[in-house]
Q: What sequence folds into this?
């Protein structure tokens, strides 16, 4: 099939490459000329495991091209909208400028039978509003909402082998003409057994908002338990292991630590609360305010613990932060708790060095006032305290004996609870975890 993908960021670039991998002829469109230049040269403009290799592989087949010219969408049967929906400045709601611009920019190039497929995370009600625009321009075109559930760091695999597809169509029915078109797009994963649910527009939009709210709630739940563990001397990692054995609860997303960040969970729960307020259903989601508050409290707590670890004052203390990305296997620093903690420590007088295998240039653009060092051994040299804030495998594997001779004081705060406290203590370190004795 001929497919256009509008928006080539973390979502769209991966989606375009994966659709070509599935055998389709794909054009990726973005207004950012630098991104298009990189992608055209088969280079990923951001770090995502496997994406570079996939781009090279599919570009050799001639099935994938990139352009800044939206008219290239003409002739495609399916048009995916993959642009960002960031949080509005100074407000909780989502900024739909890019979704609206992508859709209206596409309208002149639609033909009868085309299907416009929204993948971006949008406030409920957006799909029905955009469907009216599409139908006014091209009465025989359709608009589907098909939310994306990919996780950064696993984006290629999550796109090629998702756990489910949700198609939101205007009448919510299996017989809607867009359903068979999307079935053809996704024929390979569907044949491999991926489940699919056909729903109406608002249900499909809400599935995404609800899924991210649930994940955020799960993380804040365990972080709230970590606060109670800290007050009682209990161990939140053991608690999570024990409650996670109940398969109604499950162990995933019960890792207590510095909290969630990234370009999705924080802004999606805020956008969801804002939209519920507009709909007169704000009471239903007041608990998400608490989820957000628990999450933000983790960052303050880590700064307090770091101060304790440094003997009561951060002034002039050399602190090395291991990890800047919001999660491992990503270079994304949007709303990264690690970076926001690093900046707080600096504001409170510490001399902060941040290291990360992939995210340093993005971090330096956001917080130019921090000091960055790509080499871990150089970053930890003469440190008064280490803070492990993003659990990259190479930080999990650090050897406390080797590291002990490089630092000035053997003190470590494990913001992700991924190190073995007994091992670090045996090597002479003062070890502090979160919600652990
Ligand atoms: C998330 C959703 O998982 C995905 O389905 C959706 O499409 C987009 O948002 P992503 O932002 O890539 O994906 O990251 P995710 O793996 O969900 O992690 C989010 C944050 O939660 C990270 O900062 C991570 O470190 C944190 N986290 C996750 C925890 O603190 N504890 C956990 O147990 C799990």
A:
């Amino acid at each position: 099939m001929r497919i256009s993908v509008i928006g080539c960021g973390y979502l769209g670039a991966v989606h375009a490459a994966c659709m070509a991998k599935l055998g389709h002829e794909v054009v990726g469109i973005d207004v950012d000329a630098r991104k298009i230049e990189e992608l055209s040269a088969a280079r990923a403009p951001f770090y995502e495991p496997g994406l570079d290799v996939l781009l090279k592989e599919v570009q050799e087949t001639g099935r994938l091209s990139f352009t800044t010219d939206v008219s290239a969408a003409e002739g495609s049967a399916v048009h995916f909208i993959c642009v960002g929906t960031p949080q509005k400045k100074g407000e909780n709601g989502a900024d739909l400028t890019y979704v609206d611009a992508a859709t209206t920019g596409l309208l002149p190039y639609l033909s009868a039978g085309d299907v416009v497929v929204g993948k971006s995370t949008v406030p409920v009600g957006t799909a029905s509003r955009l469907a009216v625009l599409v139908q006014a321009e091209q009465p025989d075109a359709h608009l589907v909402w098909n939310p994306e559930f990919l996780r950064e760091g696993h984006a290629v695999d999550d796109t090629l082998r998702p756990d489910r597809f949700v198609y939101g169509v205007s009448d919510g029915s299996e017989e809607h003409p867009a359903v068979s078109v999307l079935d053809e797009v996704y024929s390979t994963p569907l044949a491999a057994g991926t489940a699919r649910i056909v729903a109406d527009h608002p249900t499909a939009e809400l599935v995404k908002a609800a899924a991210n709210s649930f994940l955020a709630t799960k993380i804040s739940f365990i972080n709230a338990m970590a606060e109670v563990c800290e007050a009682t001397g209990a161990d939140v990692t053991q608690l999570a292991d024990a409650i996670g054995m109940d398969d109604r609860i499950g162990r995933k997303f019960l890792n207590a630590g510095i909290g969630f960040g990234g370009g999705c969970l924080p802004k999606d729960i805020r956008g969801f609360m804002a939209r519920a307020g507009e709909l007169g259903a704000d009471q239903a989601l007041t608990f998400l305010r608490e989820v957000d508050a628990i999450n933000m409290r983790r960052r303050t707590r880590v700064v307090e613990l770091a101060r304790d670890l440094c003997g009561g004052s951060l002034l002039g203390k050399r602190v090395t932060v291991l990890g800047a990305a919001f999660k491992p296997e990503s270079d994304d620093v949007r709303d990264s708790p690690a970076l926001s903690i690093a900046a707080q420590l600096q504001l409170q007088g510490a001399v902060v060095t941040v290291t990360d295998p992939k995210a340093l240039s993005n971090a330096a653009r956001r917080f130019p006032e921090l000091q960055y060092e790509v080499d871990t051994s150089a970053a930890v040299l003469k440190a008064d305290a280490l803070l492990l804030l993003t659990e990259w495998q190479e930080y999990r594997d650090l050897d406390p004996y080797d590291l002990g001779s490089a630092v000035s004081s053997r003190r470590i705060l494990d913001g992700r609870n991924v190190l073995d406290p007994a091992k670090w203590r045996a090597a002479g370190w003062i070890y502090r975890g979160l919600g652990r004795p």
The first helix runs from residue 12 to 21. DSSP finds 18 helices and 14 strands in the chain. Residues 74 and 110 are 6 Å apart (CA to CA). The chain has a mean pLDDT of 98.
